[in-house]
Structures are given as structure tokens and as C-alpha cells.
Amino acid sequence: MSKKADDKHENDVPTTGHSWDGIEEYDNPMPRWWLYTFYACIVWGIGYTIAYPAWPMINQATSGLLGYSTRGALAEDLQSAEAANAAINEQLVSVALTEVSADPQLQQYAVNMGAAVFRTNCSQCHGSGAAGAVGFPNLLDDAWLWGGTVDAIHDTIAHGIRNEDDPDARYSEMPAFGEILSGEEIEQVAHYVYTIGGRDPLNADLAAAGEETFLYECAACHMDDGSGNVDLGAPALNDAIWLYGGDIDTIIETVTYSRFGVMPAWGLRLTDAEVAAVATYVHGLGGGVTEAE
Fold first, then answer.
1. For residue range 150-196, what is the model confidence (pLDDT) as tens digits?
2. Which residues are part of a known binding site?
3. How confident is the model at residue 291 (pLDDT cuts 50, 70, 90)?
């Protein structure tokens, strides 16, 4: 409450002694219900710090008399979830991935589980929508470096690419042609590669001169028509899909220095069921192919 200075003596209530522009503030006592609530909160707070982890120490917080731990509670919840899903996880691992779609319940579980695994472990590189980025493949199209069947996708996920952790990792290595070819030859073959997918040449003379170099140096992996080879992890060059960029400067850089992307071996980090689930999920995103294809 507040009163003007000339009205403050109308009640026998003391003021705080402070004055703002002639206005003084009464020093009324706090409501008892408020004080009791305040004191109760203090008692509750002291009890909480005794019962639960609260005070920071050098290495960890005090554990509390109840021994409660949010990490422990999470671990228990995870164990409960794993126990509840143990049977269907075992089923997912035991059946061939090509047969998962024959069981609607198993298919739905694999896709849902795989989506969660993908968002947690794969989206950082391939994007939340799996559209990829420069240096990280788009998983929504039909271009697959190592094959797009569900089994091929599973092997790629499980063992990774060019990592040092898994001896069965997919492995290919493009030579750095800057150490093999002259700068003129690299420019010529880059201009030829630029046109191999049907684009008009930027320099017809350079593109024509680069064809012979391509057939001699590059066709062994990328094939004569530039269609690539999934057994070698050699990308197709005739489909207008570029992992690192398809402008002439980027192609010259790729030919000169090569590329050496690395993918972790997720089979060493995830369970067999999680690998099977994320392989099923990725295969169903729209770019996977069947065994017959």
C-alpha cells in the first residue's frame, strides 16, 4: 500500500522510511498464509537436497539419501523397452530383409524403429529428410555408390565406407590424377566428363580431346559410357547427379585431388536389429531397388 506524505498519519501503520516523489510506502506485515507457504518451501527445499542429488562436489553431486539418479531411471526405462521389444527384434534379425515387407506388423516396426535410428545417427550427414548434402549422398534417388538393394544397403550401413574400424568396410580409392596427368590432360578430361551426361560442352575442343584420356584412365572404374560400377563404388557420371558438385571447377578439383569420403561402421555401434531396421527404412525412402532390378 502507498499514501501521499500528508496522509500517512491517518493510520497508525509505520512506513518503510523511504520516499519517492513525496510518496511513502506502508510497512504492513506480510499475510500469514504467504509467510507459512514461504517457510514450508524452505523446509521442503532442505528436505529435497537431503533426499535427492543436489549439491555439486568436485567430481559429482551429492547422491541423496534415496539414491535416485535420472541416468539410472533412464537406464531402467530403456531396459524395459528393450525387454518389451526383444521378441520382435529377434524376429527382425532372423528373417531375410527381403521378406520383412511380407509381415505388415514387422514392416511397420522396422520402418518406425529405423526412422528413429536414422534421425539419431544418420541425419547429421544425410539430412533429416535424407536428401544429402555436398559430399553426403542423397538417399531419395536411384543413384547408389554401392548398390541400392536392401541387402546392399544393410552391408554399407553395417560395415561403413573406408573406415579403419571394420576390416569389411566398403573400400575404393580414386587416384589423385594430379600426380599422374598433366594439367592440360586433367582440364580436357574434366570437360569431357562435364558433357558425358548430355550437357552441352563448355569447350568442344577440350571435351573431344578428353575422351581418349577418359577411356584410358577412367573407364576401368566408371565404364566407357560413364555409367559407373556399384561393385567398385565408382559413381555414375552420366546421370547428372553429383556428390561433390558438377560444375567444371569442381570436376577439375575432383580429378586432380580425388575424393575419399568416410562412413562409420554402424554395425560396431548399433545392435543387429537397429542396423536391419535402418536399412529397411532407407530402402523404403524412395530410392531403393529390389533384388530383381
1. 999 999 999 999 999 999 999 999 999 999 999 999 999 999 999 99
2. 122, 125-126, 174, 218, 221-222, 263
3. low
Owning domain of residue 109: 71-169+263-283
Q: Are 201 and 195 in contact (CB under 8 A)?
A: yes
Residues 233 and 114 in one domain: no
Cell numbers 516396426 correspond to what residue? Answer: 109
Do residue 94 and residue 137 come from a single domain?
A: yes
Domain count, the chain: 2
Tell me the pairing of strands 23-26 and 15-20. antiparallel
Cell of 246: 558438377
Tell me if 241 sits within 8 A of 143, measured CB to CB: yes
The Cα–Cα gap between 1 and 264 comes to 68
Asked whether residue 2 is domain-assigned, the answer is no
Q: Which residues are part of a known binding site for heme c? A: 122, 125-126, 174, 218, 221-222, 263
